């Protein structure tokens, strides 16, 4: 009983830290957020954070894990709530799940090398479990809705779609400074929403 209560306390504290990080990330860049600033958003002392996370990167990794877990829930709903989907319908549904997960896409646009290198192995493994489950859940949907697709095509879809996700946010959420620079540099651009770029890519990958 005591160990269960202690685990509940740890989970609640971790969730509060992750929530504080998420709140700050809405209006601040990764480099401007510190353990200190995260601690100032919590109800306990800043030094107490180190009992749960050793680095800022571990907190962001935990936030990213939570975003993957939420996306997996959306994917499970697509799987469970549809007996069959056409390619266009599947693309629509998958695009809508990512449209809801802008925070996940923003996190994916960061430097994952530094975040993962500055996190303990046990934290990284927990994150990779959620990442792997997301891949498996998308694969499960593809298996259900496209039973005639061969395994090589399914594998190609998965391993092209997931790297594509890393570029969705920076392409669809360019800053005013970036837009101005592209205009001056005469770089051709075509504004697209998260839904549009995801839907278009999925339909092309499936065809």
SSE succession: HHHHHHHHHHH
Terminal-residue CA separation: 55 Å
CATH homologous superfamily caption of the largest domain: Tetracycline Repressor, domain 2
Radius of gyration: 19 Å
Number of domains: 2
Strand fraction equals under 5%
The beta-strand count equals 0
Total count of helical runs of at least 4 residues: 11
Reading off the top of the CATH hierarchy, the class of the largest domain is best stated as: Mainly Alpha
**What fraction, in percent, of the residue positions are helical?**
over 70%
Structural class of the helices, strands and pairings?
Answer: mainly alpha
CATH-derived topology of the largest domain: Tetracycline Repressor, domain 2
**Architecture (CATH level 2) name of the largest domain:** Orthogonal Bundle
Mean of residue pLDDT?
A: 94
Q: How is the secondary structure organized here?
A:
Elements: H1 2-25, H2 35-39, H3 56-80, H4 87-99, H5 102-108, H6 112-117, H7 121-145, H8 151-165, H9 168-172, H10 176-184, H11 194-206
How would you summarize what this structure contains?
By secondary structure, the chain is an all-alpha fold.
Quickly list its features.
about 210 residues; mainly alpha; Arc Repressor Mutant, subunit A; Tetracycline Repressor, domain 2; 2 domains; 11 helices
Molecular structure report:
The protein has 207 residues and is mainly α. It folds into 2 domains: 1-52, Arc Repressor Mutant, subunit A; 63-206, Tetracycline Repressor, domain 2. The protein is built from 11 helices and no strands. The chain has helices spanning 2-25, 35-39, 56-80, 87-99, 102-108, 112-117, 121-145, 151-165, 168-172, 176-184, 194-206. Helix 3 packs parallel to helix 7, helix 4 (87-99) packs antiparallel against helix 11 (194-206) and helix 7 packs across helix 8. The longest helix is centred in the N-terminal third of the chain and has 25 residues, at 56-80. It is globular, with a radius of gyration of 19 Å. 24% of the residues are buried. The mean pLDDT is 94.
